[in-house]
Structure prediction request, 354 residues.
Amino acid sequence: MLSPGDQAFVRRLLFAIAILAVVLVAWRVAQVLLLVFASVLVAILLQALAAPVARAAGVPARFALALAVAGVVALVAGSMWLFGSEVAGQLRALRDALPGAFDELERRLGELGLAEQLRDGMSEAMPGTSSLVSGLRQALSSVGNAVAGTVLVFVGGVYLAAQPDLYRKGLLKLVPAPRRALLERSLDETSHALRLWLLGQLVSMVAIGLLTGVGLALIGIPSALALGLLAGLAEFVPVVGSLVSAVPGLLIALSQGNDAALLTLALYVGVQQLEGNVLTPLVQQRVANLPAALLLFAVVAAGILFGALGVLLAAPLTVALYVLVKRLYVREALGTQTPIPGEKGGGKDDEATA
Prediction:
């Protein structure tokens, strides 16, 4: 028969083992959990689109959600019908033009005596033929997985948006009754912050894509529509996305001459300055004011831990964790007053109280 002290020790040991088991299982299914989080983002966006429809038309929430889903599907299908062939053609042209643009870059570096270093670096980085074929097959498989994952995330988001209370109540039942009100408040604040962030990010993506595409077309850069679409989509990944999306545009512009390259560089810098000094501050007036360095390292860490899906979801994950840490740890555990994004009046961070 164990003494009361031994029984308490055994209980603590079993509790620690249970926590460790949960962490290990979560790590093994991390990709699935990321897909669940992506579905939550889709559900939040659909509810944000359906809410104004329900208020304006006076229709039930379920009907408004159905209209929102139909609207999103119609928008995507209509865009593919109107611009799909043009975008596909420009993407093929961009793919075919990039090798020549890289050759032009190598020639210009050769004039500076740097071509040898570039070739040595590329020879070390490029795989052999068999590895290249294997990598190509893996890439095609990844594209198929991405399409399937996108469909899964969208369908899951529709289910979550249709019955949010069902899943919320199930989650609340996992914590002790005295803490459920706190968890519910934290979920509301996180959902509100993510909704504002998503809407602001969509505005930024559309603006960046339009400005980049129109600007490149005016300069006379080939495949301007595809490059603008790439810039808009890449804007979803903070800091890194804008840098990566500028590389193919600059390579293509370099093959068009020095003037085109300088104008293209000025365009990308100008668009990013507009995004950083106008669009981002407007979004951050209502959402978490996340430092650029924090987002950068969050993207890098998520990429190392979870791969491409982690990079894609790094920013919204950071927003959610930022809200939860401020609510559950800084305010509740430490007792320090701090504004919380998603809370009424807590969108703008006050440096004196943060």
